[in-house]
Design goal:
This protein folds into 2 domains: 271 residues, TIM Barrel (Alpha-Beta Barrel), CATH 3.20.20.105; 139 residues, Queuine tRNA-ribosyltransferase-like (TIM Barrel, Alpha-Beta Barrel). Helix 8 packs parallel to helix 9 and helix 10 runs parallel beside helix 14. The chain has 17 helices and 18 strands. 41% of the residues lie in helices and 17% in strands. It is found in: Cytoplasm.
Length: 417
């Protein structure tokens, strides 16, 4: 991997960089859409590429179950299998020990899963995770970590953190022995729950292994914890991670979360939210999310967003048509998914341009003012606090906005309108 920092924000910790992998360059910060089963729901690989996406995710646990490594090996890897020519990242399968906790059991050896299809037990060890990810052949592969829900407390959090460090060493050994380190880049995952002391130990341990680690992820967040704790842990991690390595926040997808994370120094993020919410009829726009299932759109003959270059908006597909088909035609899921992926990409490209021109704070302030722009809206308090910690005052010159308490994820209440 080649990782070059091209510009740094003069105020915050945001930066623009170029990460060149085996399947070409990807400009950072970037948002990575999630193609869990080697297919982004609703779009072909060719369509995803034509939207300008240069890096997306596949899921190791799911690809190992189906189609399985024998078929992936026969195809020549997951790029070939899904006809994807750009960069690919795979998670390690570790997250499924939280999402499928009733089917899994963690030991020092690895995670024992019960197949939901056959009932057969499968051991996912660090070595096995590396073996599967080598068959998949993704440009970025993730260490197997011992993941606990961010709501877990007590000694289990410390146990999982130390085990993640030990499993990182086993992943490094297995990956180094594979002879694939020139094409596949192993990322470490910082764990330690919501405990500042444990995060600090994990950071020290994993940064020590920097020579074997081309990039770092912050894991174990975005699982329903208080946003006020989320951003403080994220900030603690980005402050300590090496400057010359890309930093990836796992499971982050709301626009406001992305901009806060970028301001704190994050380069990459992924989440199923933009594509999942599209299938439920919610389109993301710079004026906030809109729920196309609401009757008010039945007579709206304008595109989702006039200024959007996505194929859905550019072809003038109207909100009225989308309202008409949104809950029962796959066309609507396809159309809104394309739009939402382009929205995320525009948000990130706008951030990159602003950092390059050293006007990132103004970009963030303007985004928040428009996105949370309704007369009764305000900014979520945690975003105001998080951005203030890196020198952006959202309320400066914008006294009309009330700070709202709580999580304040705009799509949540927009969705209920
Ligand atoms: Zn659009």
């Amino acid at each position: 991997m080649q990782f070059e920092i091209l510009a740094k924000c003069g105020t915050t910790r945001a930066r623009v960089s170029r990460m060149t992998l085996a399947h070409g360059p990807t400009m950072l910060p970037t948002f990575m859409p999630v193609a869990t089963q080697a297919a982004l729901k609703g779009l072909t690989s060719h369509q995803v590429e034509s939207l300008g996406i240069t890096l997306m995710l596949n899921n190791t646990y799911h690809l190992n179950l189906r189609p399985g490594t024998a078929i992936l090996d026969a195809a020549g890897g997951a790029h070939e299998f899904q006809n994807w020519r750009r960069n690919l990242l795979t998670d390690s399968g570790g997250f499924q020990m939280v999402s499928l906790s009733s089917f899994s059991q963690v030991t020092e050896e690895g995670v024992l899963f019960t197949s939901p299809f056959s009932g057969e037990p499968t051991m996912l060890s660090p070595e096995e995770s590396m073996r599967i990810q080598h068959s998949i052949g993704a440009d970025i592969i993730m260490q197997l970590d011992d993941v606990v829900s961010s709501l877990t407390t007590g000694p289990r959090v410390e146990e999982a953190m130390w085990r993640s460090v030990r499993w990182l060493d086993r992943c490094i050994a297995a990956h180094d022995a594979s002879g694939r380190t020139d094409r596949q880049n192993l990322f470490a995952i910082i764990q330690g729950g919501l405990d500042e002391r444990l995060r600090s130990i994990c950071l020290d341990e994993m940064v020590k292994r920097k020579d074997s680690i081309p990039g770092y992820a912050v894991g174990g967040l975005s699982g329903g914890e208080e946003k006020d704790i989320f951003w403080k842990i994220m900030s603690q991690c980005t402050a300590k991670l090496p400057e010359d390595r890309p930093r990836y926040s796992m499971g982050i997808g709301f626009a406001e979360d992305l901009l806060v994370c970028i301001a704190l120094g994050i380069d990459m993020a992924d989440c199923v939210f933009p594509t999942r919410t599209a299938r439920f009829g919610v389109a993301l726009t710079f004026s906030g999310p809109i729920n196309l299932r609401l009757k008010k759109h039945s007579t709206s003959f304008t595109p989702i967003e006039e200024t959007c270059p996505c194929p859905t908006c550019a072809s003038q597909m109207s909100r009225a048509q989308l309202y008409h088909i949104v809950s029962h035609e796959t066309t609507a899921a396809h159309a809104v998914t394309q739009h939402n992926i382009v929205f995320q990409a525009r948000l990130m490209a706008g951030a990159r341009d602003a950092i390059m021109e050293d006007r990132f704070p103004a970009y963030v302030r303007r985004f928040f003012s428009t996105y949370f722009g309704g007369p009764d809206d305000g900014y979520p308090k945690w975003t105001v606090d998080a951005l203030r910690s890196v020198g952006i005052d959202l309320l400066e010159g914008d006294p009309g906005h009330k700070v709202i308490l709580g999580n304040g994820a705009k799509w949540e209440y927009s969705d209920r309108l």
